[in-house]
Amino acid sequence: MTVNSLFFLLFLAILFLLYYVCPLRYRWLLLLAASVFFYVLACAASPLYLFLTSVIIWIAGVYMERLDGECQEKIAQEKTASAQWKKQYKQKKKRVLTAAIILNLAILLILKYSGFFVGIGNSVLAFAKVKIPTPDFLVPLGISYYTLIGIGYLFDIYKGKIQAQKNYAKLLLFLAYFPQITQGPLNRYQPMADQLYEGHPFAYHNFSYGCQRILWGLFKKMVVADNLHPVSQAVFTQFESMTGLTCFLGCIYYTVWMYADFSGYIDIVAGASELFGIHIAENFARPFFAKSVAEYWRRWHITLSAWFRDYMFYPLAVSKPAVNFGKWGRKHLGVRVGKLFPSLFALAFVWTCTGFWHDASWRYVFWGFGNGALIMGAMLLEPYFNRAKKALRVKEDSFLWKLFCIIRTFLLVSLLKVFPGAANTGDSLRFIKQMFTNFKLPAGWQEVVPAITKGDALLLAVSLLLMFLVDVVQEKQPVRDVLAKRPLVVRWACYLFLLVFILAIGRFQISMTGGFAYAQF
């Protein structure tokens, strides 16, 4: 089921009532049953893949923990051989970790990426007139999310940061918890474990804040995103008849739509989780106020960026190939550039994987390349930028400079949306050509904001302004805390205003599956 459907609100209301009448010690079991029920209804593909992944992760985690115990016993028995035993058992743990990761990635690659690899194979074999049949797998909902969450859990066990969960049902709840299963966030085990497994007594604060956040998420999704989507879609499907300016605006529409859609989902599920006293990881921190592309990605899809940083970037940056690359760079290009080479090596790999994680297509690979190139270019050119700012006497703490950096970053990340926004790689390249070669002005407002009426465009503008103003306030202090200090009449006036907006122009989802942009990833 989708979280912007009436069915989900009914599901949530029933679960809320059952949770607080259920004995504390069994409340985690109720959440598990509800999560499995939610996933079965939301996922068009078989849920067996989720259970297969969770079993592999559970067995690997328990086995690595057992190896740690055996190692400690050996050390206690033969103190002189402690270093030898540690090395031996670490190698065994590494083999278990590697095997579990390979198995889980194999499931992900086969189900989600087999068509992409078959397409490459057919291109290579075209000269021989041999064609490999394209497999027709139905990709399980959320597989990219729960696979990465599980791999991160295993890495943390391997590093000794957490202890393995020996109860399979509890581990399954961590992986399949319904607010995170379809689109994240990619929660870590340590902050989630106690919250999930210990029943929480009812707290009005959690109930109030949870409902507020659900309402705000529904506004962003149903009022902003769902009404902006037809505008963005019209530009990208009819770009050949659009002016370059309209194409450029289409990239901006797509960027804002994606933000309202994805962050709206996060607000809904974070609020839903808060109703049960469980706080999931934050996934957004006003990304459109970022002053660089690197900062943008520390504010957008925070948990995915953190996952790639902790489990891929850092290990790669200190790996032997990266170190050797750095030595080569220092020898041939100077000490400063050479020092950056290990990071550049890791960044190139991480951003390729980031693009590929989003979708099995070249357009997303190019999108990943583009983001990585902007970040790496900023690292390499930083001394020259600093000299230019010094020569121009730029005051970096001034409002105008910060505003310039914010606008520049927003436009750069928006322009890169040409790749995910277009239907395929060829269309994205033609879209770019149209944007930078057709310099005609739009004939009227319908070419600037296509596919909607003037009245709908005005309502959309008001809703966008409201979303922006809330983010401005949120950048300084939590909006919910600001509202809590206002009189009861003011608070309820705000809630009713949002509710009326949602009921008037919002679009409730009837379908049990889909409904959100990031669900496809």
Can you give a write-up of this model?
Helix 11 crosses helix 13 (335-358). This protein is 73% helix and 0% strand. The protein has 3 domains: 6-201, no CATH class; 207-280 and 436-515, no CATH class; 289-421, no CATH class. The radius of gyration is 25 Å and the shape is globular. The model has no long low-confidence stretch (mean pLDDT 89). It has helices at 6-21, 27-42, 48-77, 82-124, 143-158, 168-176, 189-197, 204-237, 244-274, 293-299, 302-317, 320-333, 335-358, 362-391, 399-416, 418-421, 425-437, 445-448, 454-476, 479-484, 488-505. It is mainly α and 521 residues long. The protein has 21 helices and no strands.
Please name the defining characteristics of this protein.
521 residues; mainly alpha; 3 domains; 21 helices; globular
SSE string, helices as H and strands as E: HHHHHHHHHHHHHHHHHHHHH
Instruction: Work out the strand percent.
Output: under 5%
What Rg, in angstroms, do the CA atoms define? 25 Å
Number of continuous helical runs: 21
What is the mean pLDDT?
89
Low-pLDDT stretches:
none
Domain count, please report it: 3
